[in-house]
C-alpha cells in the first residue's frame, strides 16, 4: 500500500493552471520565441512603467547591501504612499506577495476548517483553491449572464459562512457589477461575514463605471478591498498587491502574513508606479482601443463574447466541448498563447488578454485560420 500524505481536502485540490510561458511554447512547437504572442495571463502589454524600471535600478544600485538585507517588513514608505493616495491610515493597509497572497491570507484569517465560503460560479479560480486549501465548505452560486448573482450569494450565506469573495470586474468573464448594486449587497451581508471585494482590474474601468469602494471600507468593518500592481500597473513579475480594510481585519491578516512577503524591488517599483498616472491612463486607453478591435472582429466573425470591463475578453470558439482546447492548440501552433477555460466549466470558450495593436492583430489572424473549415 502506498503512503498518502496530507489531508484529504488538500489532495482534492486541482492545481492552478497558469498561462503557458513563451519559452515552453517555443520548445514544444519549434517556434522562434521572438514571434510568439502571449495573451494568456492578463498582464499589461506595455510591460512595466519606465518610472518603476528606474526605481528598481536605483534600489539595486543603492549598494549591493540593500538587496543583501531583508526588506522593510512594514513597508513604511509604500504604505505611506498608499495611505495618502486612498486617504486611509497606514494601519488599514496590508501588503501581499501579489493580491493572490491577500486572498489566501483572508481565507485563513477569517475562516475555520469546516466553515463555509460563498463565491460565484465562473469567478476567479483562487477562491475555490483558498476554500479547498482550508478544508472549508464551498457555497458556489450559479452565475447569471456569466456574472455574479448577488441575491443568490446573499441567500447562500449559511450560519457557518464567514467570508464571501466577489470579483469586480470578474476574471475570467470580465463581468461588472455597478457600484450601487454592490454597495446595497455589502450593506445586507451579516456583519460577522467578511466580504473580500477583489478589484484586480479596477484601474481599467471606464470613468462612468467607477465607484468609491474605499469610502465603503470606512462604512463597513466587514469589507476588505483587494487590489494589485500586477495588471494596469504592469508589475506582475514583482508580485505585489494590497488590502484596504479596517484595522481589526488588518491586524488578523498581519498575524498570518509572512514577515518579508514583499521584496525590496517590488516596494520601490510600486511606489514609483503608484505615482505614474500617465502610465495608468495610457494603459487604460490602449486597453479600450484593443477591446473595440477584438470585439468588432468577434462580431464580424459571428463569435459570441461576454462584454468585459477587464483587460481580457471571453470568446466562444465553438459549440462542442472540445472547441476551447482544439482552437487553443491551433493557436499555439501559430505561436499565439491564450487561455483555455475548461477548468472553469467553460470548455467552449477561450479567454484572450487584450494586447498591443499588433498582438491583437496577430491573434485575430491566427483565430481566423484556426476556425477556417479544413
Ligand atoms: C480577479 C483576480 N484577482 C486576483 C488576481 C491575482 O493577481 P496577483 O496575485 O498578481 O495580484 C488575479 C490574477 O489574474 C485576478 O484575475
From TrEMBL:
The gene coding this protein: hisC
UniProt keyword list: Amino-acid biosynthesis, Aminotransferase, Histidine biosynthesis, Pyridoxal phosphate, Transferase
This protein's record includes keyword Amino-acid biosynthesis: yes
NCBIfam families the UniProt entry points to: hisC
GO biological process: L-histidine biosynthetic process
Name used for this protein in its record: Histidinol-phosphate aminotransferase
Subunit relationships: Homodimer.
Enzyme Commission code: 2.6.1.9
Cofactor requirement: pyridoxal 5'-phosphate
Modified residues (N6-(pyridoxal phosphate)lysine): 231
Pathway note: Amino-acid biosynthesis; L-histidine biosynthesis; L-histidine from 5-phospho-alpha-D-ribose 1-diphosphate: step 7/9
Stretches assigned to the Aminotransferase class I/classII large domain: 36-361
Protein family: Belongs to the class-II pyridoxal-phosphate-dependent aminotransferase family. Histidinol-phosphate aminotransferase subfamily.
Claim: Transferase is one of the keywords in the record: yes
Catalytic activity annotation: L-histidinol phosphate + 2-oxoglutarate = 3-(imidazol-4-yl)-2-oxopropyl phosphate + L-glutamate
GO molecular function, a single term: histidinol-phosphate transaminase activity
Domain of life: Bacteria
Name of the top EC class for this enzyme: transferase
InterPro entries (alphabetical): Aminotrans_II_pyridoxalP_BS, Aminotransferase_I/II_large, HisP_aminotrans, HistidinolP_aminotransfase, PyrdxlP-dep_Trfase, PyrdxlP-dep_Trfase_major, PyrdxlP-dep_Trfase_small
Alphabetical list of SUPFAM superfamilies matching this protein: PLP-dependent transferases
Amino acid at each position: 500500500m502506498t503512503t498518502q500524505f496530507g489531508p484529504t481536502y488538500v489532495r482534492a485540490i486541482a492545481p492552478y493552471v497558469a498561462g503557458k510561458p513563451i519559452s515552453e511554447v517555443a520548445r514544444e512547437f519549434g517556434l522562434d520565441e521572438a514571434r510568439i504572442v502571449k495573451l494568456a495571463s492578463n498582464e499589461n502589454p506595455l510591460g512595466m512603467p519606465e518610472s518603476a524600471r528606474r526605481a528598481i535600478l536605483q534600489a539595486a544600485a543603492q549598494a549591493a547591501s540593500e538587496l543583501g538585507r531583508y526588506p522593510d517588513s512594514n513597508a513604511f514608505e509604500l504604505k505611506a504612499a498608499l495611505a495618502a493616495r486612498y486617504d486611509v491610515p497606514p494601519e488599514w493597509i496590508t501588503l501581499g506577495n501579489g493580491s493572490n497572497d491577500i486572498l489566501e491570507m483572508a481565507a485563513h484569517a477569517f475562516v475555520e476548517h469546516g466553515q463555509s465560503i460563498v463565491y460565484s460560479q465562473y469567478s476567479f479560480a483562487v477562491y475555490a483553491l483558498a476554500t479547498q486549501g482550508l478544508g472549508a465548505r464551498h457555497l458556489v452560486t450559479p452565475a447569471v449572464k456569466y456574472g455574479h448573482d448577488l441575491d443568490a450569494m446573499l441567500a447562500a450565506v449559511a450560519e457557518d459562512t464567514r467570508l464571501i469573495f466577489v470579483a469586480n470586474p470578474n476574471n475570467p468573464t470580465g463581468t461588472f457589477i455597478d457600484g450601487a448594486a454592490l454597495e446595497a449587497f455589502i450593506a445586507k451581508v451579516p456583519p460577522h461575514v467578511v466580504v473580500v471585494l477583489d478589484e484586480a482590474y479596477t484601474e481599467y474601468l471606464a470613468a462612468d463605471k467607477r465607484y468609491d469602494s474605499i469610502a465603503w471600507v470606512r462604512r463597513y468593518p466587514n469589507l476588505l478591498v483587494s487590489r494589485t500592481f500586477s495588471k494596469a500597473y504592469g508589475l506582475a513579475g514583482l508580485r505585489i498587491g494590497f488590502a484596504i480594510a479596517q484595522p481589526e481585519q488588518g491586524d488578523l491578516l498581519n498575524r498570518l502574513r509572512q514577515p518579508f512577503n514583499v521584496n525590496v524591488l517590488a516596494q520601490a517599483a510600486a511606489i514609483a508606479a503608484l505615482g505614474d498616472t500617465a502610465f495608468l491612463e495610457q494603459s487604460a486607453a490602449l486597453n479600450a482601443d484593443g477591446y473595440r478591435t477584438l470585439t468588432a472582429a468577434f462580431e464580424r466573425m459571428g463569435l459570441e463574447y461576454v462584454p468585459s470591463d477587464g483587460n481580457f475578453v471571453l470568446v466562444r470558439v465553438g459549440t462542442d466541448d472540445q472547441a476551447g482546447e482544439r482552437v487553443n492548440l491551433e493557436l499555439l501552433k501559430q505561436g499565439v498563447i491564450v487561455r483555455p477555460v475548461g477548468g472553469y466549466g467553460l470548455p467552449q470558450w477561450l479567454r484572450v488578454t487584450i494586447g498591443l495593436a499588433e498582438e491583437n492583430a496577430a491573434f485575430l489572424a491566427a483565430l481566423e485560420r484556426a476556425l477556417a473549415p479544413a
